[in-house]
Design a protein that fits this description.
Elements: H1 2-98, E1 105-114, H2 119-128, E2 134-137, E3 144-145, E4 148-152, H3 155-162, E5 166-169, H4 184-202, E6 209-210, H5 223-232, E7 236-237, E8 242-243, H6 253-262, E9 268-274, H7 278-293, E10 296-298
Parallel strand pairs: 1-2, 1-9, 1-10, 2-5, 6-7, 8-9
Antiparallel strand pairs: 3-4
Helix pairs in contact: 4-5, 6-7
This protein binds zinc ion (ZN).
Zinc ion binds near residues 112, 113, 170, 174 and 213.
Length: about 300
C-alpha cells in the first residue's frame, strides 16, 4: 500500500511536470502575444490621441477663422452701413445749409495727385486732429511714389481706407499735356484705369468721384461729352472753392496761409491741397483749427453730396 501510494504520487508528479512542460510554449506564446497586443494597443491609443488632438486643434482653428470671417463681414457691413448713414446725414445737413435753414458750415479737405511718400505725414496730421478727408489719386509714376522713385506707394491705398478717408479718381495718367484731353475716350479710359488700380490695391474700393486734372475747365469743348460718359459710369465730378495755391509756385508758408485764408468764405468749401507740398503740410494743423474755429465741420466727400456735380 505504502509502496503503491509512493508510486502513484510519483506518477502524478511526473504527469504534472509533463503538463507544465507542455504548457510552457503556450505560456510563452500567450506572453509574447500579449506584449504585441499591448504594443499595438499603445500605438493605436497614441494615434487616437494624436488624431483627436489634431482634430481638436483644427476645429479650434476653423472656429477662429469663422469668428474672424464673421467679424470681417460685420466690420465691412458695419463700416458700409455707418458710411451710408453718415453720408445720408451729411446730405441732409448740406441741404439745410444750402436752403439757409442751418447756420452750420462744412469744409471738405481734398488732396490731389497722390499717393506720395509724403502722404503718410498728411495722414498722420489728419489722424491727430481726427479729420477725414478726400484723396484724388493718380498713377503718374506707376506703382512708385511720385516724390520718391525708390519707394513703392501702393500700400497707401489701403491706408486711405483703413483711416476712413474717401478715395477719389484723378485719372491714371494725369496727362494734361499728354493727350488726356485729346478725346473723350482717352479721358474716360484714364478714369477707368485708375478705378481699376484703386480696386486692386484696396481689395474692392470703388471710386465714383472724379476731379479733372487742371480742373473741369481744362477739358474745354470735351467737357460736356466727358460728363455724359461719366454719368453712365455713375461718376460725379468736383472742382474746388478754396485753395492755398500749392499746385502752382508756392514760395513760403505765409503765402500758403494767406492764399488759404483769403479763399475761405463759402458755407460749404471744397479745399484743394496737394499732399506733397511742404508748406501745405506746415499750415495743415492751423488750417484745420482755423476752419473749426469758424464753425466748419470737416468731412470726407461722397457721391451724393451737393458738391459732386452729375451733369
Ligand atoms: Zn492734379
Amino acid at each position: 500500500m505504502g509502496k503503491s501510494l509512493k508510486s502513484n504520487q510519483r506518477k502524478i508528479i511526473v504527469i504534472l511536470i509533463v503538463i507544465l512542460v507542455l504548457l510552457i510554449p503556450i505560456n510563452i506564446y500567450l506572453y509574447l502575444n500579449n506584449i504585441s497586443l499591448k504594443k499595438e494597443y499603445q500605438s493605436l491609443n497614441k494615434d487616437y490621441q494624436t488624431n483627436t488632438k489634431d482634430f481638436k486643434n483644427e476645429s479650434n482653428k476653423i472656429d477662429e477663422i469663422k469668428d474672424k470671417l464673421d467679424k470681417l463681414n460685420n466690420l465691412s457691413n458695419d463700416t458700409k452701413k455707418i458710411k451710408e448713414e453718415l453720408f445720408k446725414d451729411i446730405k441732409i445737413l448740406e441741404d439745410s445749409i444750402l436752403n439757409n435753414k442751418s447756420n452750420s458750415k462744412i469744409a471738405y479737405l481734398t488732396f490731389d495727385d497722390g499717393p506720395y511718400y509724403s502722404t503718410y505725414k498728411f495722414l498722420d496730421v489728419l489722424d491727430q486732429y481726427n479729420v477725414k478727408a478726400t484723396f484724388f489719386t493718380t498713377s503718374i509714376n506707376g506703382t512708385n511714389c511720385f516724390d520718391d522713385n525708390t519707394k513703392n506707394c501702393m500700400a497707401l491705398y489701403k491706408e486711405y481706407v483703413k483711416r476712413g478717408h474717401t478715395i477719389a479718381n484723378h485719372t491714371y495718367t494725369h496727362g494734361i499735356f499728354k493727350g488726356l484731353y485729346s478725346s473723350i475716350d482717352n479721358f474716360i479710359n484714364a478714369v477707368k484705369k485708375q478705378e481699376e488700380k484703386v480696386k486692386t490695391e484696396t481689395d474692392g474700393y470703388i471710386t465714383n468721384i472724379v476731379r479733372f486734372p487742371g480742373g473741369s475747365v481744362t477739358a474745354g469743348r470735351l467737357k460736356s461729352g466727358i460728363i455724359k460718359e461719366l454719368q453712365k459710369l455713375n461718376y460725379g465730378y468736383v472742382d474746388w472753392t478754396a485753395e492755398d495755391g500749392d499746385g502752382g509756385n508756392l514760395t513760403s508758408r505765409t503765402a500758403a496761409w494767406n492764399n488759404f485764408t483769403s479763399t475761405i468764405n463759402e458755407k460749404i468749401e471744397v479745399v484743394l491741397f496737394h499732399d506733397f507740398n511742404k508748406y501745405t503740410l506746415e499750415i495743415l494743423p492751423d488750417a484745420i483749427k482755423y476752419l473749426e474755429d469758424k464753425g466748419y465741420i470737416l468731412l470726407p466727400l461722397f457721391y451724393e453730396s451737393n458738391m459732386i456735380k452729375k451733369s
